[in-house]
Amino acid sequence: MANVYASNFLPDFTGCTLLSRYKLTEMLGSGGNGVVYKAIDTLKFSDSPTGHCAIKIIDKTDFTPAHLEFIHREVDIHRLVSTHPNIITMHDAFYDDKYHYIVLDYCPGGDLYDRIRAHSYRNNHELLKSAFVSLLDAVQYCHGQGVAHRDLKPCNVLASEDGSKLFLADFGLATKEEMSDEYEMGTHTYMAPECYIRLHGPTPPYYPPAADVWALGVILVDMLAGQSPWTVESCSPHNRYFMAFIQDPCYFDNAFPALSRGACDILKRIFNVDPTLRISVCELRKAILNLDTFFRSESEKRRNPTHAISGKSGMSWASLLPGRMRMMRARSFMVWVPFRQAHRRRLEVQIN
Ligand SMILES: Nc1ncnc2c1ncn2[C@@H]1O[C@H](COP(=O)(O)OP(=O)(O)OP(=O)(O)O)[C@@H](O)[C@H]1O
């Protein structure tokens, strides 16, 4: 997959001082829209004893009014939900002729993507439960405020240093619309089926909070197994693993034999292709809290063996991709694709 990161076309801001106050010390990460720097707040936040913060810089030079509207939406929505303990606090936002700057709490634990790559949650029920429930708390709070995130994925979730608490970040695609007709917003691997434009006939508007639940399910599988439920590809009819899931009610039991029956049952309730029948965040939180274990014990495996090569799916696709990274940092996708494609042509940068 080709990814274009904002850091490829933005200058290096390391060492710069913004508003005579924020001294940028190092780049923390980059996505499709912006670059995030660690900074020292020379006036210090009262709630940040170290005086560190993170500053997201978004290049707006080629932006149309519609694109600028997205940035304003990000700032407004993030401000609205910012006080929740599992949402990265937004402290300030300002801009100049070329860039928008968003000042955030600095999160020293890095992002969830790196935690998953390090297999931090595999076979660690308590750590996984604590972390995932904290993420559910954040998303439930957003939904209670009428906000759906629409770009839930491990790169947009930050972690505490011990990994037991997660913090939601990046509200760049969030919406307050009850029903949305902005299709294919987000990141394909995490996108619910109803968010795709139908090839035949009109596409009905979708309910964004239900789409968030689907993305949470993909994140949960990432955390449980270090891989996505149907490879890094999206849930499309062209993805044979997704089609295997559609045809096989025991897909998760067969493809992920290390997971407990209870965990597989929860995944089935999440990945209901009918969004009106999909579990809500509130119900999901209850189900996770009531779950004894995410992982199948050795005795359960002996008593109740499931075979990877069985059932209608006839595969454990994980075993078909030996040695490959089965998750990747995928950039978000949204309506300003032409803008990004212009950059891609200019730079011809291909990552991954
Ligand atoms: N507050 C923070 N503290 C520490 N690291 C952060 C913080 N915010 C972001 N990062 C790092 O920077 C990366 C990019 O941030 P962000 O997702 O906001 O950028 P983006 O351009 O909107 O990306 P995307 O293409 O995913 O939408 C994150 O994956 C994370 O590693």
UniProtKB/TrEMBL annotation:
Keywords: ATP-binding, Kinase, Nucleotide-binding, Serine/threonine-protein kinase, Transferase. Pfam families: Pkinase. ATP binds at residue 56. The keyword Disulfide bond does not apply. One of its GO terms (molecular function) is protein serine/threonine kinase activity. PROSITE patterns: PROTEIN_KINASE_ATP (PS00107), PROTEIN_KINASE_DOM (PS50011). The keyword ATP-binding applies. Residues 22-295 form the Protein kinase domain. SMART domains: S_TKc. This is Kinase-like protein. It comes from Lentinus tigrinus ALCF2SS1-6.
